[in-house]
Amino acid sequence: MLRFEIVSSRTVEGEDKDKKFVAYMLQVRQDVTDSMAFDPDPANVERRYTDFLCLYNGLKKDFPALLNNVTFPRKILMGNFDPNLISTRCTAFESLLSLIANESRLRDSPASIAFFQEVELKEAKRLIDEGKFDQALSVLESSFKLLNKVYTDRSRVVLSVLCRIVACAGASGGALAGPVERWAQLALKRYEAVSDSDLLLIYVPLLHTCISIWETLGKDKSKLIDELNGLRKRGMKVDSVPSLMEAVDNLIII
What we know:
elongated
């Protein structure tokens, strides 16, 4: 069962030192309810009050009836660091997330998808643009860990971040081929049962990137080449395609 819990909070200095904010540590778990066993490897990410506020406002706009009984703490100008206020907010955040955990329509909404991925995605893109591929890889791995608990294995949002991890190897010029290989293997396996036409547009760039990774590592790439040739025979364009990173960027997640 999907579980959300605010396990801690901390005060963070903003870029402008006069603007502090509270960061809430959100833990995401897939617990086994029958045995009351906790997820041994939970995902942990930080979110701000404004992230939760955007989530609430987005859900309230799209699903007013489902959020009719949800009370969300209002924004205040003073006293944001008061322990009682922080505790009250944590309780409210968990109530909202519990509703999301039990309602697939809320989980699949644009507001929820943005809440669960945008912070890490923005940071990963910044690091990639700066050529810090190893740091971007770490951020994306954390993002995958969270998204893979919230969404199904072959959902757009999960496959997107998985392919972006693999794309880091291509963008790094092969420097990350070793660390990314296991993710490339997982991406190929996940794609075995994918039929979504838009997601298949990423599959060809994924195969090309995996071939490059296999070449760097000295692995046999014949099966991947055979797969590309098979797609070509079925009429799919397999040459002069965008890079995997470009293809993922062009994918509409929501």
